[in-house]
Design goal:
heterodimer; A: mainly alpha; rod-shaped; B: Rna Polymerase Sigma Factor, Chain: A; 2 domains; 69% helix
Chain lengths: 232, 203
Amino acid sequence: MNQRDLELLSAYLDGQLNPSDSARLEARFKSDLQLVSVLNDLRATRNLLRKLPERKAPRNFTLTRKMVGQNPPLPRAYPVFRLATALATLLFVFSFGLNSFNRLAASQGPGFGMGGGGGPEDSVVAPYAAEIPATEAPAATEAPSVALAPPAPTLVPTQEAANAAQTAESPALKTGEAPDELNQSQPVTDQQVPQSPSPVIPSAWQTGLAIVAVIGLLFMLVTRRLALNRWR
Amino acid sequence: MNEQALIQDAQGGNLDAFNTLVLHYQDSVFNTALRILGDEDQAADATQEAFISAFKSITSFRGGSFKGWLMRTVTNACYDELRRQKRRPTTPLEPDTDDGEEMDSPRWLADPSMTPDQKAEADDVEHAIQHCLNNLPLEFKTVVVMADIQGMDYSEVSVAIRVPLGTIKSRLARARLRLRECLQGFAELLPASYRLEEGINAS
């Protein structure tokens, strides 16, 4: 039995052969008993499969809206509120962060964010300061008058110069006059630093953004709940 | 049931319309999955997956045999399930008999429409056929389940599994031949009314 004959017999069994092919095959049945035998076997197999009992589905397979990810129909304004709420929240967080950063930057003093003020700079200054002639030391003693000027950075070099003068053991320091004046200058600079800067984003704006975010969120929750109730 | 109207409604997102179709076809879909997978729980999972997938892609249905289209969906779900099994093989929890065969499911035994003798007979036949089906290559099994068990015609099967008509004929013939050889090994187990010779005489 070749593959071609097997396919012909199977198709014949199902009535899928055209009349001429059927007639030709039936003519062969008279002389080829093996064809008839295989045809009968195929028919018996098919009958057996058709008698297989059909099982009832063990449960109903109907779908729920959750299964198919269907959402309740929401009002047209819903996306607008969603966008507004998201933007307000984002801006609120951003403004809060910006103000906090600004406050932090101010509290760190002028060295903050300028890459200086650390040890390495001192080490650079020190040798230079060591070369400062003793006559320049009095300049440092004039620090109080300079320190009154608002920009804090001008104080730093002055103090450094004073420190440098100290390390250089200038005669002025030895006299004991300069330290007193330096000590007097310290409280003045300390009073300058704590001045808190005004916030970048005014608090009124922040409050407004928070209100928009909360109202938007409430609207979304209520609308969604109502739509869900209606939908059910 | 106006199938065409229900399909159109379902395509518009009407879940109730689709569920009416589910109730109509769930036995056929479940039986197809059961014969391909050979396990009731897996078949139930595949059936559910198939209906979910069918609803989500029902807009792609462009007419023709809806049953054939559903059969394609369930066949794909079965293939996915078989691929999952290959990745993570599991051991069945059902207890085995002394012969190593799985014990009958209680629900099957509880079928009130059959006498105990008929149940035993049908159970033997079903086990024998399922065993032989399980030994068939997947592509043969799918064709024989659709054509001989679900009674679909060649063109419906061809559309359902997207295979040319000639291939369907060839696969079905070879599947029947293999099944015949396998079932002959169960000749002693099969009751007289189900023996192959009876089929020959009957036809």
